[in-house]
Specification:
The complex is a heterodimer of chains A (about 350) and B (about 625). Chain A is mainly alpha-helical and about 350 residues long. Chain A is built from 17 helices and three strands. The chains are: A mainly alpha (about 350), B alpha+beta (about 625). The interface of A and B includes residues 128, 227, 245 and 306 of A.
């Protein structure tokens, strides 16, 4: 058993453990004195299970996973359809499947499954031999589950699929012409999306982002309180379990989406620097995996995983500070959540497998 | 992986890494901007919403009667309040809040608007003195409107209910007019005395509110107390009133309207001040219901009027002592002057009547029998300004200066007065009516009592007062409150006092008051002196129609005097509205007061003070317990 765990990448593991430790402390402080005071213990259970699953997966040759990726992808799509049909509804959205008293959110795992399948498809031939049809196929593979997720509706989650698509320009490179076309097209798509696709509460979020004081007691309340928490933290922070915004409940959803504001209030700018440095090192190590991977598919997987991770970190940390719109998107290792925690560790297990096979230390 | 792919990958992943680094760098800068450059601003916001100031209202001083019986005490009450910073602004929310509490939405909205200017810490009181049902309702409504809070505040309890309603007055939140009239003196929402001694003694009674700074959570619940300054209770004090005598006055009046004042001849202290109908100040502590407004404020009987200091009555025959003084001092009569009463006499072409045919009378007889013709004769020999001059000399033209709010001055006509008020010149014929206390003459019962105190003491002009001293909080002893010495008014010939005394003694012994059996009975035990008065409410009524008249047109009944006749200790004035002859209604009430003061009080004293105030309900609120 111990031998099977040895494949875990030491550097990645120590970064992960450090972040898990910080995240657990923050959850403890955020839940203190509320009904969520036991949340950090539950999260520790998820973390332990996730770490174990990650270490086991690190020992598995990714190639074996890629071979089964079509089947896994099909099962994943099935689970998303199941969510829409028999899913568990919480607050106007059907995102969860109830299984033996536990609820799971299949979309969390689905983004990594989609990444696995896309990496497998594109990695099956050399980089400069990829056809346009392959790209079209890859886009279809990503867009299909995205649409199912948007139907739940869960725009934040659907957005976290998009980094997979960024693999394509990584493979082909971007021409200046394409870049110019994008600059023209994006505002256009944005305009259409505003009119036709976005739901009123999503529009509300964008408007609130542009001006948080627009409705300080309503939609802007979360951002306003979060910014007060962060700003009041100062350089060294208010100290562990001593942030007034956190402890007096002014900070909303402080165990999930806004958990980083707790860290920022109680640990200050220095704590933020440490957390971002650790995240940066984690992303860098994952990119190393992409560079050194034995096969193209493994490399694509590592690059895509880096993208998805970066997306979560940048969007969450930016959102909490009001630098990006208020999106319901989890921060890995900090936000409470069973499905997301397990999924994150499983995804990192595959990256570790690639690193292990590449024999880099 | 082929070499070319690896080369391409490495280059493009380098670009990705640079982009990620830039993005992380941007976040670092953004957090640095928030946490370092804007730290002070956010710190202030964080403290501002978590640290709140709350006022701790100070209880007012307890008021005791002269023997230490509490007249008003304090107990804890629960109010439903909204802190100033939590005031809702959404009209729909205010409407919902008001209707679920059973309040008028417009009224609540108006209060909320007005309260935005209130100082920090003092809350807006929505509902006062919650009972059990009120607390349950408040808790239910609070689930939807979490800014509601229940606050403990001291509340006045007037013991004896309407025993001394007008003397005590009541307290309530300061109103807009008072605030505008005294800029900077009051704070919005401050509890102030609104009538009676609560008003005039407000500065003596009020305490200094304390305050505390507390940490509140997002729901506005107090989590911790940062610092606190305890409220300083107002000083407790004694009034000169005697609860037992007050009680006798209340019982003696029953359903009758009028007022009684009893003065202590040692120092001018007010032993009893009762205005009937009285009111129960406890009912005025809360917002008035429509029923209360109709019953008290819009009632033609005017129960809120303190008839003792604000009621102006024609003094009738009680005025004849002033006429005697004026006649003597202006040398138009001597104590031995005799006039003949033939039942009626013509002055200035008008026929003036007496209620009897008295025949020849000297001054003592005229006072004892209350002969009108005698005093018409005196008045016909005087100028109105001479009468005014005497009234002024004996303190009857100004308010008595009692420490109660809005005392009215007595009205004594003069040429100047008529010119100023009626824009007409004085006709000599009018002076005749003034001779028997009719016409334009008007006295408050308080002014009359002071005048009879002066008659009793051979010219001492007192300043009547209620304040009897503060209570020393440590020993419970009375301290301070020394009354100013009375002013001595010098009569031209001191022998005249004896003549007037003789006349007033005869009134009770054998004169107009002696017709009443109760007066005779009391006078046997405590000989007293005084003067009856029957003052017309309308100018003249034929006696045959008298009985058929509606009660409100019947004459007012008056009696003023002092007791005991030798070595007087108290002076009094009693007015009973629309009750007929002075000897029928007012004199027996005075007799009952004398009976209590000199006989019953000594035989059956009130139980010693120290009765317990009804306990507060409930002792501690669900939260915000102090």
């Amino acid at each position: 058993m111990l031998r099977r765990l040895r494949a875990a990448d030491g550097r990645l593991l120590s970064l992960i453990l450090a972040l898990v430790f910080m995240g657990t402390l923050t959850l403890y402080s955020a839940g203190r004195g509320t009904t969520q005071s036991g949340l950090w213990i539950k999260q520790t259970g998820w973390n332990a299970a996730g770490l174990l699953a990650m270490a086991l997966l690190a020992n598995v040759d990714p190639t074996r996973l890629f071979k089964k990726s079509l089947l896994i992808y099909a099962l994943g799509l099935l689970s998303l359809v199941a969510v829409l049909l028999v899913g568990h509804r919480i607050g106007g959205a059907k995102r969860w499947l109830a299984l033996g008293g536990q609820t799971f959110q299949p979309s969390e795992l689905m983004k990594w499954i989609t990444l696995l399948f896309v990496a497998h498809r594109l990695g099956s031939r050399p980089m400069d031999k990829v056809e346009k049809a392959d790209f079209a196929g890859a886009v279809a593979i990503v867009v299909f589950p995205m649409l199912l997720v948007m139907k739940q509706p869960d725009l934040g989650m659907a957005l976290s699929f998009t980094p997979i698509l960024l693999l394509l320009p990584v493979m082909r490179g971007l021409r200046k012409r394409t870049l110019a076309a994008l600059l023209v097209l994006l505002p256009l798509v944005g305009g259409v999306a505003w009119k036709k696709v976005l739901r009123p509460y999503q529009k509300e979020r964008v408007l609130t982002f542009l001006n948080p004081e627009r409705d300080p007691q309503g939609k802007g309340y979360q951002i306003t309180q979060s910014r007060i928490a962060i700003g009041a933290g100062g350089i060294v922070g208010k100290g562990f379990t001593s942030g007034s915004q956190t402890q007096l409940n002014y900070l909303p959803v402080k165990t999930t989406d806004f958990v980083f504001a707790v860290w920022a209030e109680e640990r200050g700018f220095l704590g933020v620097l440490i957390a971002l440095a650790l995240y940066g090192a984690l992303l860098a190590r994952m990119l190393e995996g992409a560079r050194a991977a034995k096969t193209l598919a493994e490399s694509y997987y590592c690059a895509g995983a880096t993208g998805i991770f970066a997306m979560h970190i940048l969007v969450n940390v930016g959102m909490v500070a009001g630098a990006l719109p208020n999106k319901g998107i989890a921060l890995p290792f900090f936000s409470y959540g069973g499905s997301s925690t397990l999924s994150v560790f499983l995804a990192l297990g595959v990256v570790m497998g690639a690193l292990h096979r590449a024999r880099i230390r | 992986m082929d070499a070319r792919s690896r080369h391409l990958l490495s280059r493009r992943l380098g670009v990705v890494q640079a982009l990620l680094l830039a993005a992380l760098g941007f976040l670092v800068l953004f957090y640095g901007w928030l946490q370092i450059f804007r730290h002070g601003e956010f710190q202030k916001l964080a403290i501002g919403q978590a640290v709140k100031e709350r006022s701790l209202p100070a209880p007012r001083g307890v008021i005791y009667d002269r023997n230490g019986h509490p007249l008003v005490d304090n107990r804890k009450a629960l109010h439903l309040v909204i802190q100033r910073e939590d005031l809702p602004s959404d009209p729909a929310e205010i409407t919902d809040l008001a209707s679920s509490l059973g309040l008028d939405p417009d009224e609540v909205a108006r209060k909320i608007r007005a309260f935005r200017r209130a100082p920090k810490g003092r809350p807006l009181v929505l509902m006062e003195n919650l009972d059990e049902a009120g607390i349950a309702l408040a808790e239910r409504v609070r689930a939807r409107h979490p800014f509601l809070a229940v606050q403990v505040a001291p509340r006045r309890v007037y013991l004896g209910d309407d025993l001394a309603g007008h003397a005590m007055g009541y307290v309530s939140e300061v109103d807009d007019q008072t605030m505008q009239a005294n800029p900077g003196r009051y704070q919005l929402g401050e509890i102030v005395g609104r009538a009676g001694y609560e008003d005039s003694g407000n500065d003596k009674l009020k305490g200094v509110d304390g305050g505390k700074r507390i940490l509140v959570d997002q729901l506005g619940r107090e989590v911790a107390s940062l610092d606190r300054e305890d409220p300083k209770a107002g000083r407790s004090l004694y009034l000169t009133l005697d609860a037992g005598l007050q009680q006798v006055a209340r019982e003696a009046f029953g359903e009758e309207k009028g007022a009684a004042v009893v003065l202590d001849l040692r120092d001018g202290g007010v032993l009893a001040l009762y205005s009937s109908p009285s009111y129960d100040p406890n009912l005025f502590l809360d917002r008035l219901s429509q029923d209360m407004v109709d019953r008290y404020l819009r009632n033609p009987v005017q129960p809120m009027l303190d008839r003792a200091t604000q009621g102006i009555y024609a003094p009738g025959s009680t005025w004849k002592l002033l006429m005697a003084l004026s006649g003597l001092e202006h040398h138009v009569i001597t104590p031995h002057t005799v006039f003949y009463c033939g039942g009626h006499k013509s002055f200035y072409g008008h026929d003036f009547r007496c209620d009897k045919t008295h025949g020849s009378l000297d001054l003592v007889g005229a006072i004892a029998k209350s002969c009108d013709i005698y005093f018409y004769e005196v008045a016909s020999r005087l100028d109105i300004d001479q009468i005014y001059e005497t009234a002024e000399k004996y303190g009857l033209t100004v308010p008595t200066g009692i420490d109660l709010p809005h005392e009215r001055a007595p009205r004594v006509p003069s040429r100047e007065w008529k010119r100023r008020v009626k824009h007409e010149k004085w006709y000599a014929g009018e002076t005749i009516s003034v001779g028997i206390g009719q016409g334009a003459v008007g006295m408050t019962p308080m002014a009359l009592a002071r005048f009879y105190a002066l008659l009793a003491t051979d010219g001492k002009l007192y300043e009547p007062h209620l304040f009897y001293g503060f209570q020393n909080p440590a020993t419970g002893e009375r301290e301070g409150g020394a009354a100013p010495a009375p002013k001595q008014v010098d009569i031209v010939d001191p022998a005249w006092w004896g003549v007037l005394h003789e006349g007033m003694a005869h009134v009770v012994e054998s004169g107009t008051a002696a017709t009443n059996p109760l007066v005779r009975q009391v006078a046997k035990e405590v000989p007293f002196s005084g003067k009856t008065g029957t003052s017309q409410v309308i100018t003249f009524v034929d006696k045959a129609h008298y009985a058929q008249l509606a009660k409100s047109f019947k004459d007012n009944s008056l009696f003023a005097g002092f007791a005991p006749t030798d070595n007087p200790q108290i002076a009094f004035a009693v007015v009973v509205e629309n009750a007929g002859f002075g000897s029928d209604a007012a004199a027996p009430i005075a007799a009952k007061l004398i009976q209590y003061w000199f006989v019953d009080r000594v035989k059956r004293p009130l139980p010693p003070p120290g009765g317990k105030v009804p306990d507060a309900f409930p002792a501690t609120p669900p939260e915000e317990a102090d």
